[in-house]
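Because discrete structure vocabularies remain unfamiliar, we reproduce here a specimen of the format, pairing a chain with its fold in token form:
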Amino acid sequence: MHSVTGASSGWPGADPAPPPAARARLLTWLAGAGIAVSVLLMIAASAVRDSWMSPRVVPPAWGPPWDLRSVHVSVGAATAGLWIAVILGAGGVAAGLLAVRRGARPSARGLLAGAAIAVVALTVLLPAGSSDALDYAAYGRIVALGHSPYVMTPYHLRLAHDAFARSVPATWQHSVSVYGPLATMEQFLAAKLGGLSAARVTFWLKLWNSLAFGLVAFVIDRLVRADPARRLRAHLLWTANPLMLWAVVASGHLDVLAAAAGLLGLVALGRHCGTARIPLPRLLAAGALIGAAADIKINYVLYGLGAAWVLRRSIASLAAAAAAALAVLGPSYAWFGLPAVHAITNRRNGSSADSMYRAFLIPVLRDHLAVAAIVIVAAVAVLVLRRMPQAIPDRPAIQAALALSLAWLFFWPYQYPWYDTMLVCLLVLYPASRLDWLVLGRLAATTIPNIPGNPGAPLGRVLGEIHHLSVVVLSPLVMLAAAAGLIALCLTGRWNLRGPGEPGAAPDAPALVGSVTG
């Protein structure tokens, strides 16, 4: 048998296989090209957003956000271009991860500089790919008018017949806000700054999202910068990942605000083993920040459960962190009252259009989907907590929160790709493993069905059929495969962790039976 490297492939006349260094350089080039072209396509689509998306947004008289109103692109062309962008972006990130594993060390500064330029460009353009940012603007406008977005719906703004009303999306016009009170306060502040210009309100919302995105990038850089391979991997998965840029910067989803607060809360606990005594100021800061994350989106209470899992052996520490979290959550929910509490359970028995449950649902579970999903998520959470290799021993709360986020994101029936923000910002702090491929593949497969968002015209027969297949076949199958893959990793223990230096795999870690606190 021939060696894998530096030997003939076995076919007559075949060229010798390229050496590992050459393959790493090729993968690095493919990664850079894929990511760059993907981001450029996303910027181009955002720049002409009003020609293919609805509702139309009246730009402000001066300043951002901007839109090339003289250029018209069909919804079909924009959709096809964005699908290509997602495929190239996911492929570019995958090639970059493989290159790092093979020893490539491209410039981290160049990667960060390119990502920073992309963030700025996407921030100053109108939100594209989703109308959620305009929903946020509508909820903020409702509060600015003295009403509660948990009682009054955007439909009433559409009756106002002013410039703002023309940009209120019709999709969720009869839905009250399903976001936490702190998110509502952020939307109110943007509405006060943006006034009657829906475009200007969304600019402020996107600006804060971009700052939060950059803050997460800065925090993870500080945590992993001592290891060049882990640093590159972290920025490939987060900072320069076109799928993340599209989900939370271009589209303007507020999940990144909660992710930033939650990550800071987990980091605030500091380096420690599970039995170490954590100083009170750190406990209070962690509780308050995680409480703020849950006050933006309630699913970030999982970060709190992760911290509680680690602190469970010290009742005093657990009580201090919980009290700080409640000090944030309590007053804000008390201010908006029971309607805000009801918003948490607004979608308790629903599923997103491309959910694996909708495609493979057992009929008897249809009317009890939420209960069944809770049982499944809880069971998987216990499995992942017990079987996930202890690879962040000095920050056990991050690993516990990661395990719980995996269980919820992989098995809860109501999911969108931007929800993965809470997972990716933690995954980058865990060593490279086969889990990276499950998360990246799932993120790409769930992003495609959510393009083009709210189209301004029909897609046409061919693109419409492709879109339909992506919703009812492609995405559910990939989500099911990713869920099965996670279970398989837990049961077999074949995570294939990569340690410092990346090239070469650490031996498969044995399954951990017990806590992740060390």
Residues 272 and 281 are 15 Å apart (CA to CA). Residues 1-15, 504-518 have pLDDT under 50 and may be disordered.
